[in-house]
Design a protein that fits this description.
Blueprint: E1 2-10, E2 24-30, E3 36-45, E4 54-59, E5 76-81, E6 84-87, E7 90-94
Parallel strand pairs: 3-5
Antiparallel strand pairs: 1-2, 1-4, 2-3, 4-5, 6-7
Length: about 100
Amino acid sequence: MLLGRVAGTLVASRKEELLEGMKFLVVRQIDVNNEETGGYVVAVDAVGAGVDEVVMYASGSSARQTGLTKDKPCDAVIMAIVDTWEVNGDTKYQK
């Protein structure tokens, strides 16, 4: 699982039939210090996340393990919206 911040949305009017009805978001990866790392990924949104929210996402074969993405051609999925995290007792993020 990875941390990311939703940077925007993606619309694809023509796509694989198994992806119909799915919402796609552009996610920028962040590290445990809440710093952007520069990498972006397009992920299926399984939890109703919005722009600027911090999320947890999975990529690779793990992305096909949610109820929404099971057996779908998907390489990244947002599976949680983050409320808070801390590292060594120091709060790094609070929604």
